[in-house]
Design a protein that fits this description.
The complex is a heterodimer of chains A (about 250) and B (about 325). Chain A is of the alpha/beta class. Chain A is built from nine helices and twelve strands. In chain B, about 65% of the residues lie in helices and about 5% in strands. Chain B contains 14 helices and four strands. Chain B is flat, with a radius of gyration of 27 Å. Classes of the chains: A alpha/beta (about 250), B mainly alpha (about 325). At the A-B interface, helix 2, strand 8, helix 3 and helix 5 of A face helix 9 and helix 10 of B.
């Protein structure tokens, strides 16, 4: 298996706050990695570093064999131009806690915006693809609705479809179900599970331990900017080695 | 005797509470006093006549108002006023967007220049700016296009290029840009950070994000104050009369300089200003509606729809949707 994401000693500071204190991680192609941990542990920040929404301060982080936000030429590292950063980002799908759909566009327009404007796809072709994706997430009849006319769970599924429309090689989920009413969580998790079954490489920051156990290939527990414990989900959940992991799991289980 | 307060319909299927309503004598007194004052004012404005020369005339000279209201000169002036408003606002809006984007630029020099521009144009009176542009040929008799500090390819005579009309457009437009910049910037800052991140994560560039995601959403915040600015602009164009642009006020001044009918002519101008303002207000409503799409579950009715509903025969009026009824009663938040 090839490595999709490789993080070596990744550090990130916000001013005086040391958020990531040396993260070492490898995500293989086709793997579903679930990251759990208390809030403020740096898990969302790490996720945002992967598509360069945040710049890392030290260490190396690469996606699909290429550095994130930089290019290595000889033994020197060059910052990428905005245009190159955009092109790299387009290959990585991201789903946010608060969906972040564009409220002034219909569901269909939300999905075809990037394929048409960034990839230069024909509108009709993009729309056809978008309708197929909407069917896949179970919202085939909502193409003409505006995001605010949908429930949170429906919005999040549209957001997943929007990310998939760019045909990403990697999907990042930043607490995708944390803002949802409990009865809506299932629909979103079902879509994600389906996606995992189709072989998508996924990194999921979540509090859904059940999802981690059923769908994840690996589980990472982060606390205070470091990886405390990592391993197979069932293993880590049923038999945590570290005290901090035990304490966290006893609270969320 | 009917009450001044609206009677609440009793809930259907229940016996209404029989109680003597609270009396509000104060309301009746206040209403009566105000109505008398309104009647006095209306009488003075419309009907009362006074002796001028050999004839009895209305105080405001309504016959003169009627005589000039649709005259060629006035209508020509009105057209110039509307042209000035439209062109200056267009310059103001385009300039404002550019300045706002500059103020949010990562480049400090660009940010600083936008700041200085806004500081200067908001810091000096509009009338002074108009006079300055009108007298530009004193400072720059010749305008040239060429290499900075090098040879010039094209020479233009400032006196022929900068007519009074052009000076008014430049003055009003550049001044407006400074105010619009702050309005547009506030609008852009009102857009949720998550929207920008979502666009970025889809690979959209900074400019594309601005144009397709931020500005359309900022419009909801930008439109209402822009409507205000347009209405202010309509009236600020009257300042151009000082630099001899024959807009509405100057047209009126030309007439009363010859006829000495100052007050009736000012009434003529005022009525036209009010008419155009009313039209603009209605237009603003429809623009707001357009940019508000997707922002609430149901759009409020247009003025036209409201009017139709008002005049449709009473028993046939379909019951209002609860949300719409709430919006009409001004209780917007209840819909959320």
């Amino acid at each position: 298996m090839t490595a999709m994401i490789e993080a070596v000693d990744v550090h990130k500071r916000f001013g005086m706050v040391h958020v990531l204190k040396g993260i070492d991680l490898t995500v293989h192609s086709g793997e579903v990695m679930v990251i759990i941990g208390p809030s403020g542990s740096g898990k969302s920040t790490f996720l945002r570093c992967i598509n360069h929404l945040e710049k890392i301060d030290a260490g190396t982080l690469s996606v699909d064999g290429e550095l994130v936000g930089y290019r290595r030429r000889g033994d020197r590292i060059y910052e990428l131009k905005d245009r190159e950063v955009c092109r790299k980002r387009a290959e990585i799908g991201m789903v946010f806690q608060h969906f972040n759909l564009f409220p002034h566009m219909t569901v269909l327009d939300n999905i075809i915006e990037a394929p048409v404007r960034v990839r230069g796809q024909r509108r009709s072709e993009a729309a056809q693809n978008a309708r197929r994706l909407l069917d896949r997430v179970g919202l085939g009849d909502k193409a003409e609705s505006y995001p605010r006319q949908l429930s949170g769970g429906q919005q999040q599924r549209v957001a997943i479809a929007r990310a998939l429309a760019m045909e990403p090689k990697l999907m990042l989920f930043d607490e995708p179900t944390s803002a949802l009413d409990p009865e809506l969580v299932g629909d979103v998790l079902d879509v994600m599970q389906q996606l995992a079954r189709d072989g998508m490489t996924m990194v999921v920051v979540t509090h859904e331990i059940g999802f981690a156990r059923e769908v994840g290939n690996s589980l990472v527990f982060m606390d205070e900017g470091v990886v405390v414990e990592a391993g197979h989900p069932r293993e880590v959940i049923s038999n945590p080695k570290h005290d901090r992991t035990k304490a966290f799991l006893s609270k969320v289980l | 005797m009917t009450s001044l307060t609206k009677q609440q319909e009793p809930p259907s299927g229940q016996a209404p509470v029989k109680a003597v309503p609270v009396r509000h004598p104060g309301r009746w007194v206040a209403a009566a006093v105000l109505l008398v004052l309104v009647a006095m004012l209306a009488h003075a404005v419309v009907f009362a006549r006074i002796k001028r020369g050999n004839s009895l005339q209305t105080r405001f000279g309504w016959h003169v108002v009627g005589q000039y209201f649709l005259s060629r000169q006035i209508l020509d002036g009105l057209v110039v006023t509307i042209e000035l408003t439209a062109i200056a606002m267009a310059i103001g809006i385009v300039g404002g967007v550019i300045l706002a984007v500059m103020r949010l630029s990562p480049n400090p020099i660009v940010r600083w220049i936008a700041w200085v521009y806004i500081w200067f144009f908001r810091g000096t009176p509009l009338l002074v700016q108009l006079l300055f542009w009108f007298n530009l040929s004193y400072v720059f008799p010749k305008l040239s296009i060429g290499i900075p500090f090098g040879p010039a390819f094209l020479h233009l005579n400032a006196n022929t290029l900068i007519t009074a009309f052009v000076a008014a457009i430049i003055g009003l437009g550049l001044n407006e840009a400074a105010y619009m910049a702050e309005i547009v910037r506030a609008g852009m800052l009102s857009v949720d950070e998550g929207q920008i991140e979502a666009a970025q994560s889809l690979g959209m560039s900074r400019l594309l994000t601005m144009r397709r995601v931020v500005l359309p959403q900022a419009m909801r915040v930008i439109i209402p104050p822009t409507g205000n600015e347009t209405i202010s602009m309509l009236k600020n164009t009257s300042l151009a009369s000082v630099i001899t642009v024959t807009e509405l006020l100057y047209s009126v001044q030309i007439i009363y300089a010859a006829t000495y009918q100052t007050v009736p002519m000012l009434i003529v101008a005022s009525i036209w200003y009010i008419i155009v303002t009313t039209v603009l207000t209605t237009g603003q409503y429809y623009v707001e509606r357009y940019f508000g799409r997707g922002s609430s579950r149901q759009q409020p009715p247009t003025p036209l729809q409201q009017l139709r509903r008002m005049f449709s025969s009473h028993p046939n009026v379909p019951p209002r949707e609860p949300l719409e009824a709430m919006l009409l009663s001004g209780n917007r938040d209840a819909s959320r």
